[in-house]
User: What shape does this take?
Amino acid sequence: MTRKSPYVAAQKYVEMFRVTLASQLAYVYDVLLRQIFLVIIMFVFAQLWRTTFRFQSAGTIEAFSFDQMLWYLAASESIVLALPQIGRDIDEEVKSGAVAYSLNKPYSYPLFYYAKYLADAVFRFALNLFVAGMVTWVLAGIPRWTGTSAAAAVFSILLAFTVDFWTQFSIAVLAFWVEDTWAFRFLYSRVLMVLGGVLLPLDILPPLLRRVSSYLPVSQVIYGPARTFSFFETRGWLALTGRQALWIVALMLVAHGLFRLGVKRVSVQGG
Amino acid sequence: MNSAGSSPVIETQKLRKVFRSRTKEAGVTGSIKSFFSRETTEVEAVKGIDLVVERGEVVAFIGPNGAGKSTTIKMLTGILYPSSGTARVLGHVPWLDREKLSFKIGSVFGQKSQLWYHLPPLDTFNLLARIYEMDPAEYRKNRDYLVSLFQIDEFLKTPVRKLSLGQRMRCEVAASLLHGPEVVFLDEPTIGLDVLARQNLRRVLKQWNREVKATVFLTSHDVGDIEQLADRVIIINHGEIVLDTTVKTLKHRYLHRKVIDLRLAQEAPEIARPGIVTVKAKGQGLKLEVDARIAGIDQVLSAVLKEYEVLDITISDPPLEEIIAEIYRAQQPDGVRS
Assistant: This one.
């Protein structure tokens, strides 16, 4: 048997997406339990920002009103809590030797993991946003969405997941060289937390830091799409999409390059 | 299917793999020292082996732990790059044409799973059908055949985590055969299985091979796997092939000894007859080693049952390590391989 049409070849990634979704549903109680954390954190954020806004006579902080701020945080928390730890999975697969099974199949290993990642991320994000959205609706009122802004936000979020995937994949394939990629993964998660805009919009940071972080991939993962979600403006969204696309291309090239080199170094000893 | 025609299905020349690993002295001092000077050691896992396997052969590739079996399989399936030497599987260089080759081969690594743990095997089968780009009709035909052959129908829709190891292994093997591979690599397929599950899997694999006539490359620690499944046996030890012969010859030369474990109703006696050695006689337990060429197993058993009241009995092969040691001993005088 040899390779058939590109459509047939693409079906394997679609099936991987579907199987991953089915597997997620097997964990549905675990996923629901995680939502408790999201409810608590949204409530704490609401109290903190309500107090902060009380001291602002203008009623806005860097153009964000209280409800926009809370909807921003609902989106940023929903994204960050949806990011699958694919880097850890690949690292373990390389170390345990299970990579032997994954490598001798007729598919692209990175794309196969991308399909798996996307299914995980989309499922978790949808659930997170539903819960965070309900809490935010109660605490801050309905969001100022239009059809265009919602579609733009969804598009940005899908690109955000793609940026995060290729970053995590690039880090994970370092497992072919180093014994443990934990330090790199930890560093990435902290930078994502601080400069990605998880806890507050980057608009609030000092100008230099804001400028630097706006070019980093971490801000394309969290800040960009979360801002689009709560505060849509066409020009800003187009700039974000451009930056996301550039980072995706760059990270894909790095990830594929590292993967090609790494596979030649695979060292699966014994059974 | 295969363009290689009558050429060997698997062919290697001087295939060699060297692993490099870092070493570190024990303790905290050793850890600190390793920051400044890193020492590496080289382990030559496979030492330039030459192999030829023809279409339809069932080859048992055996050896003790660390002998180089799995490393060889991983090079033949394209997962590992060799340090030197060449290999061709179905006309492909495995590590260069891994994706093309993967359509034509199947593999089971007994200690790793390809089934989705929280999903029923059927979900993995559906995914594999897509991965191997199978036509729906072809997939259904192959799946129905394997489901019936491996008798996995009743738990096809049960999550894998709820299956016994024997059931899971049957599903693992069926999953690897789903796309109709021309060559199947079975790496310890019966590892961890109980006697019944092992026999069941061997029986099914044998039937499958008889019907499909695929080439099978099997590694195992279990002499029973080799006796019942393979036509030819290649023994590898310390990365070198020490024996390449037919199973028939192996049985005649090296598997003629059987170990009989008995539990008697009375104190176990020492038995000394031609072809029988008492390995252990303690309390009611009696362990005999029988050379089946001199004393037939059936004769030994009927003699024991006639003279003693037997509570329990087990007949087994000597461990693979002993057989390999015996092969070494046999080769020592002239150093000629079989």
Summary: The interface with chain B takes residues 1-4, 8-9, 11-12, 14-16, 19, 22-23, 26-27, 96-101, 103-107, 264, 266-271 of chain A (CB under 8 Å). The first helix of chain A runs from residue 6 to 26.
